Here is the input.
Amino acid sequence: MEELKTEVKTMKHITTLLVSILLFARLHAQDQEAIKIEANKYCDILKSLDLVKSLDMTYPKIFEIVPRDKMEESLSKTFDDSTIRMQFDKFSLGNIGNSIEKDGIKYALVKYTYTLSLTFLDETDKDFEKMMLNTYKEMYGKKNVVYNKDAKAFVLSLEKSMFAINDPQFSGWKFLENKPTMITLLGKLIPEDVMKALNK
Here is the structure.
């Protein structure tokens, strides 16, 4: 009789554990699907080069540190360069990691790839083109850089990642680019332990 009670108790524990695992997996799957939808919208905006509009999908708390108008001004200057034309293309979402929740805010890491075409509009010579080609290859890897001689365009194949953040203060998932140059800024917006866990 005692053996039967023990077996029933064990089965209850196993059933509870399985239900918890299934519920956990379902919640993560729901998060990942929602992130995928919003991340695709974000990438479409970047592809259209409407970078000011992309700030609508950026985690709003960043504007408490860097005012939005300053960011808009910086983006406009970057893409208003009359000597070079930039074009984003071939955006593709990669792995969307499981979300981590802390203090009521959910975080996830999203990997994606795209190509960036850089066309110099001023007249250039072969020495300049060779110098730029070598520079880009050193920065992004030889296999990720192609030079189109006819179009005088450098095509860079890039792998990037960004943080998706679902903060109850705002509507839906928002994004922050995961860049080494932004590490100090990111540290003010994402808990250190969360960032380390997502970047594993």
Notes: The chain has one domain: 2-198. Helices lie at 2-47, 51-54, 68-79, 126-140, 183-187, 192-198.
